[in-house]
Amino acid sequence: MRFLFKTDYEDDIKLFPHSGYLVSYGVLLALLLIAPYLLSSYLMSQLVFVCIYATVGVALLILTGFTGQASLGHAAFLAIGAYTAAYLQKYNVPFPVYFLAAGGLTGIIGAMVGFPALRLTGIYLVIATISFALIVEEILARWESVTNGNEGMRVKTLSLLGVTVPRDSPTFYYLCLAVLVLTIIGTLNLLRSPTGRAFVAIRDSETAARSMGVNVALYKVKSFAISAAITGFAGVLFAHKLSFISPEMFTLQLSIEFIIVILIGGAFSLHGAVLGAIFIVMIDPFLTYLKDDMPGMIAGIAATFGAGPATAGSIKSNVAAFASLNGLKGAIYGIIIVLFVLFEPLGLYGRWLKIKLFFQLFPLYKRATFKRQKIYVKSERNR
Amino acid sequence: MSYFRAENLSLHFGGLKAVDAVSFAVEKGEILSIIGPNGAGKSSIFNLISRIYRPTSGRIFFEDQDITEEPPYDIARLGIARTFQNIELFENATVLSNLLVGRHRHSTTQLWQELLFLPSVRANEKVHRRRVEQVIEFLDLEPYRDKLISGLPYGVRKVIELARALCSEPKLILLDEPSSGLNVEETDDMSFWIRDMKSELGITVLMVEHDMSLVNRVSDRVIALNYGRVLAMGSPAEVQQHPDVVAAYLGA
């Protein structure tokens, strides 16, 4: 185990507490930079989605994880970013301009959602954000002069400073990676300055935050605006990656996927948002794989246990029918959320921390280390 | 003119008069305790001062400024900090970041500067950090700096709450039952700290307390309340011998 001896206040402020962090993040960054030369084009495309989902995950983490305001409306923010980009593109606005405009507009709309949300907490806030998402979805479908309605909009290939950047080129991947890394750095900066601490204060006790001089309403609106703006930036990249956008891409299911990103990753850490993004992006090909191969596999197993060809055939068709049921994906997502909340509330990143601590303390690791203590001292009266 | 003044302060919940036309003044640099049986309206007065409740009638003045209509977050900015009876710490954060939230009223940086963590933000952070360290030293909290609140025992949390209030460098501090839940030794420490706050840091203290030994040791003056009304005001000994106070505690 490593013990840190702090000799300067700087030690509490800097991003990398010791040189080990520099090495491991350096290696990670180097691997990510050479990834286009190592991975197949399919995996590269998945990696771009991981970057985009992780960016949205970090955005949602700022709002939900740090400020404690749940949101099921982030698909709508993503949509606003994507449509702003597609619309401005029609007027030959250059990429840097519409990129910033999309983030800015989404941030303003986020702040506007934040105002009514000031009076809502918990489940009611969730309902309000779902309603917002549904309203946006409906507007996108109906406002045909701008959004082209249900026919959707084609997004032209990205052109950056006169160079065309196709959506499956390494340059596009680097762009997404840069947006993700900058988002993470910005968020870390925020967390070590007064605004980030005010967010956490609001999450844990609004009463105490207020009595320490935090303008709770202002900071909630700020949190909504920042979160929405980052999601708007991600939306632009999302639109370019898909090259075609339509209202049915930005449904409630997408918002739920974003919630899964932070829930499964681990609700209070940026590592978690990235892990969750990897999980959610990679579960899709995994499900497709299961759908294609599982019926044959199960029929094969049944055959080895002595089932006749007719039985094996009917097992195969039954399993295939089950695997292609409508809404199965939603059900699987639901089960995953429930299982994680019940058995791994700290998420994938929490699991990683536990494994790390197990080896650091070996053989003295105690399972109870991560058990949540229940102490009932907090007053609910002033809420 | 007194330093802090409440004039005819009332708080009614329907027909219940939690605080009923209470007037008192706090002089600069004194320790004033409010005592009274349960439900006498002591904590309600604190919640009125820190604007968690809006007074039904009456005015509050601090440094000759009417603060009755100030929004809650500006009360701290004016230099009034408080602790809570049942501890309101930020559970899932470290002691250090809890204390740094106490510095919030001194933060001057803008959001965009913080996103980039400009040198000005860094310099400010170091100032905050140094001030926090002074409070940590004052209250002997060195062993807990990087611990999460959720893992700390009750007595330590109580001290951390006091520390967080001190980090805002208040002029007036409101302590809501600083000794509740503390053992004898911890209560002793608390009484020393309260006196040091007055003598070393020059902070005026307004305190709600049940523990009469603590009240006797630290208070310059005492106010006794019952049913939202002031029964007696004066030195600790005077108030304890006041017939109305004896009646309120022991029954007539």
Can you describe what's shown?
The complex is a heterodimer of chains A (383) and B (252). In chain A, helix 3 packs across helix 13 (270-304). Chain A has 383 residues and is an all-alpha fold. Chain A has a two-stranded antiparallel sheet. In chain A, strands 2-3 form a two-stranded antiparallel ribbon. Helix content of chain A is 72%, strand content 3%. Chain A is built from 16 helices and 4 strands. Chain A folds into 2 domains: 19-278, ABC transporter involved in vitamin B12 uptake, BtuC (Orthogonal Bundle), CATH 1.10.3470; 285-370, no CATH class. Chain A has helices at 10-13, 19-38, 41-66, 74-90, 95-117, 122-142, 144-147, 170-191, 194-204, 206-211, 216-242, 252-265, 270-304, 309-323, 328-343, 347-361; strands spanning 153-154, 158-160, 163-165, 244-245. The model of chain A is unreliable at 377-383 (pLDDT under 50). With 252 residues, chain B is α/β, with parallel strands linked by helices. Chain B has 2 domains: 1-79 and 171-252, P-loop containing nucleotide triphosphate hydrolases (Rossmann fold); 90-169, no CATH class. In chain B, 40% of the residues lie in helices and 23% in strands. Chain B has 10 helices and 10 strands. Chain B has a 6-stranded mixed sheet with strand order 6-7-8-3-9-10, sandwiched between helices. A 4-stranded antiparallel sheet of chain B has the order 2-1-4-5, covered by helices on one side. In chain B, helix 3 packs parallel to helix 6. Chain B is globular. Chain B: Involved in beta-(1-->2)glucan export. Transmembrane domains (TMD) form a pore in the inner membrane and the ATP-binding domain (NBD) is responsible for energy generation. Chain B: This is ABC transporter. Chain B: GO terms for molecular function: ATP binding; ATP hydrolysis activity. Chain B: Residues 4-252 form the ABC transporter domain. Chain B: It comes from Bradyrhizobium nitroreducens.
